[in-house]
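Hi P.,

Sorry for the delay on this. The queue was packed all week, but I finally got your sequence through. Input first:
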Amino acid sequence: MVGRDEIENNEKAGAGPVRVLVKAMAVLELLAEATDEMPLGDIAARLDMNKSTCHRILTTLAAGDFVERPSAGSYRLGVGAFRIGSAMARRMSIRDRALPAMRDVFRKTGETIFLTVLRGDEGLCLERLDGRYAATHTLRVGGTLPLHLGAGPRLLLANLPDDQLDAYLNGPFQRRIGSQPTEAQVREQIEQIRADDYSVSRDDVEEGVTALSVPVRDHLGKVVAALSISGLSSHLPETERPIQLRYLKEAAAEVSHAMGYRETLPERSAI
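Then the structure:
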């Protein structure tokens, strides 16, 4: 839990809004540890926080459903906190269920394998298995890329509903000064990805690097992750793309099946 010393240190180092966020995090962590609802006075006392400040923070958190007030003057975690926790649980589940299939593709190809999920306006690297020349890949576990760059993020972008796609291209994409590729090029790429059901990138994240990516689906058929293979372009020539895509699609089908998606699994390839 965020302690008093950490709160005081952040208050000395940070600006007003940052101090409030630190206090809000302390409130949420305290409520997460509590087995029952807590009175306002107890929350303020436990955190050594001014009671009126604590009340303002709780009121703001309640407006976002992060806390709720089951009885007058008492608080507990709300459904907003549950949604965030559930989202993280789903992501961890995807990683755990994807690892065996990722290892199989890695064993067959020797190249770097990525698992990417959507996080806001970015693609988040949830897992990575390092292959040959892994040092050429700058995206690390926990790192992000804009949704229009890289095979995995672009595949996630292509699978957004049209209104969310337009919102991204009219918002975060436009705010990137000198952004390449152009919006017209991105839309053309999106159409191709939707037609092929896989994504290809070359030289747009790292020079001389090619990546292929295919979708992972959940029990509703929704794309929840991108499974990718990436390596030096000389190691991933177009002549070998069919077999590389086959390995990826077999692995993605297994992960999707583990996530509850029901479609006939392709016969696993041997090497």
